[in-house]
Amino acid sequence: MAWERLSVRRGRASAEALVEGIPDYLAYPLTEWLRTEFGWHRPSSQGGVDQEFLRRLATNTRIPVAATSAIGGISTQITDAIQRNSDLFLDVLDATLYLRGRRANAQDLRQLLEMGASAWTVSADGTALQRRVNDAAAGAYESAITSEDVVSGELADAWSAAFGRHPDPSDAWDHAIKAVEELLIPMVLPNKPKANLGGVAGELGGPASHKWKLTPSTSSEKVDDGKTLEAMLRLIWPNPDRHGGGVDRRAPTQPEAERVVHLSVAIIELCRAGGLSKLT
């Protein structure tokens, strides 16, 4: 849990809302984090400033730079540019995580953003910025992707498309569906070619719905586990942006996509590792 200012704890100041951009009090510490990633504090015997990385960073973030003989190369041009544009600042932080990969000190950046009440944090894998969500939702997501399989990969893509720096609601919805399909098709329709999530939902809610068991199981006397899971799947299938030319086709909204991703996390958590079974 993040530290809270004493004045807030005493009721003498209001709790801060999360900040979308880069407030003045975060500009300097975040710039120093970037300079460390650039190699400013690395001795020349260990490579010093990474000029090749800086060129790639400037190109990826579309920052115009000019050749220079300065010791820090184009790093000052990059840091000067981001002071005038919060969105560009966030893009540079995001691109630095991506380009540096496991070499980046993601934990330090995560702490700075949290202390500064930023609306942004570092993704679980440390390679991107993502919008902050509540701790319970973040914990469920991180638990759902612990297995290194296609399901986790699709779910990670869905999460990134929903909560990343440049969200794509339709793409998030697609990957959420694919993640659930990758898990449930082998369990529910293992022998059906070209099965999809709609077919899985139909099977779970069909005549044999009473044979499907969830852990924990519903205590309802009106609906069984198969129909319960079917109802959950019907909330995410299909993506409204994928209707085949029908009048109902539309682009999903950002809030809708976020809820679909959260629901896919819950379904995957519920059904993994024996959570869904069928009575013989």
Detail the topology: elements first, then pairings.
Layout: H1 6-9, H2 24-38, H3 51-60, H4 75-83, H5 86-100, H6 106-115, E1 120-122, E2 129-131, H7 135-144, H8 150-163, H9 169-188, H10 197-204, E3 212-214, H11 225-234, H12 254-271, E4 276-278
Antiparallel strand pairs: 1-2, 3-4
Structure characterization notes:
There is one protein chain. By secondary structure, the protein is mainly alpha-helical. The protein folds into two domains: 20-123; 136-278, Up-down Bundle (Four Helix Bundle (Hemerythrin (Met), subunit A)), CATH 1.20.120. The protein is built from twelve helices and four strands. Strands 1-2 form a two-stranded antiparallel sheet. Helix 2 (24-38) packs antiparallel against helix 6 and helix 9 (169-188) packs parallel to helix 12. The chain is elongated, with a radius of gyration of 23 Å.
The amount of beta strand, in percent, is under 5%
| Number of separate strands | 4
Poorly predicted runs of 5 or more residues: none
Instruction: Please tell me what the overall shape is.
Output: elongated
Order of helices and strands: HHHHHHEEHHHHEHHE
CATH fold category name of the largest domain: Four Helix Bundle (Hemerythrin (Met), subunit A)
The protein's oligomeric status is single chain
State mean pLDDT (0 to 100 scale): 90
**Distance N terminus to C terminus?**
46 Å
- Please state the structural category: mainly alpha
The strand order across the widest sheet is: 1-2
Question: Count the helices. How many?
Answer: 12
Taking the sheet with the most strands, its summary is: 2 strands, antiparallel
CATH class category of the largest domain: Mainly Alpha
Name of the CATH architecture of the largest domain: Up-down Bundle
- Count of folded domains: 2
Report helical residue fraction: 40-55%
